[in-house]
Amino acid sequence: MSEKNITTDIITLTRHVLDEQRKHKEASGDLTILLNAVQLGCKFVATNVRKARLLNLVGLAGGAVNVSGDEQKKLDVISNEIFINALRSSGRVAVMVSEEDEDAIIVEEETRGKYCVVFDPLDGSSNIDAGVNVGTIFGIYKIKDESNGTISDVLRPGREMVVAGYCMYGSSANMIISVGNGVNGYTLDNAIGEFILTHPNIQIPQRGKIYSVNEGNAKYWDEACTEYFNSLKFTEGKNPYSARYIGSMVADVHRTLLYGGIFAYPADKKSKNGKLRMLYECFPMAFLTEQAGGKATTGKERVLDITPQKIHDRCPIFLGSKEDIEDIEEIYKRHN
Ligand SMILES: O=P(O)(O)OC[C@H]1O[C@](O)(COP(=O)(O)O)[C@@H](O)[C@@H]1O
Asked: How far is the centre of ligand 1, averaged over its atoms, from the C-alpha of 182 (Å)?
């Protein structure tokens, strides 16, 4: 490789966030320090996911079950501990909510900061033993009253988040993040241990050709949902959409952000509020989708406008290309 191919001016995630911060004179640097802790957590999980089979980290964590009734995988438990330790030791966090913990974690006074982090340490873990892409999803709120962090600081609409992101562990580790000013993607260079800017200013296509939903639940869907997905398959005079479903939200949303189309986990007769959790699955993904020029709806309302009553509340979600989501909104309007 000749010298000219070697980029000597690499933009790391840390540098990019610092550049962003410099635009805000009032910024204290706390968010940069917190995002460094999130990065550390993702790098650590990336290493363990990559070596899971070699380190015998696959399989169940001895029958432990999380608050959603899912059997916890060894890597679920390890990833959760990695994140809690990284976030707590940053000294920038007041409240944490994890998919793997029933209760919110209120950080002790002496190490408490002014941000709240909601996260799914290892999303799609039902796929981990098959080596299919999994990921970490996170969202960050700023506490309302700097003197005291409580659970009310996270039971807020998703639109009040200040940061949202995910890290996908696959052929490479990809971090996709928004601080409320567009969406950027970074790839982990394992050799230097840095996330490098590789996908600047991600813009989701206005309309796609791919739909992603678990059609195994089709018999439980409501009429509007059935009509919509049939409209993508049994099209008059134009090509039907292609179906793609990995069963890891991070992987299915990542493809949707880059290629366009729609990802959905609708409510149905079996799961009245769908399956995915508002705080640490739906809100961060809806935030990223909107920042990339797309939309996210429950069918009836904007996902980011919902206020959760409990930290593990679920909501239906249809997210993706603007025109595709407007189609489903139109159909639900007609059915309501
Ligand atoms: O198997 P299903 O019902 O289609 O559900 C798949 C969905 O559930 C999840 O695996 C839930 O995530 P967790 O693995 O974090 O519980 C999502 O990643 C995915 O989109």
From this structure: 26
Task: Compute the average pLDDT of residues 195-209.
Answer: 97
Q: Is 272 exposed, middle or buried (0-12, 13-18, 19+ CB in 10 A)?
A: exposed
- Token pair belonging to 19: 């550049």
Dihedral, CA of residue 173, residue 40, residue 91 and residue 15, to nearest 10: -70
Is the pLDDT reported for residue 72 higher than 90? no
What is the helix (H) or strand (E) element at residue 76, kind and residue range?
helix 74-90
Enzyme catalytic residues? 70, 76, 99-100, 120, 122-123, 281
Q: Report whether residue 76 contacts ligand 1, using a CB cutoff of 6 Å.
A: no
What is the residue-wise DSSP string for 259-273? H-SEEEE---SSSBT
User: ipTM > 0.95?
Assistant: yes
Structural domains in the chain plus CATH codes? 13-201 (3.30.540.10), 210-335 (3.40.190.80)
Return the residue whose CA atom lies nearest to atom 10 of ligand 1: 124
130-134-138 Cα angle (round to 5): 160
Count CB neighbours of 51 within 10 A. Answer: 11
- Ligand 1 closest atom vs CA 122: 15
Cα separation, 233 vs 242, whole angstroms = 8
Name the percent of the chain lying above pLDDT 70: 96
CA of 294 from ligand 1 middle (Å) equals 22
Which tokens is 315 given?
């909501």
Cβ of residue 247 lying under 6 Å from some atom of ligand 1 = yes
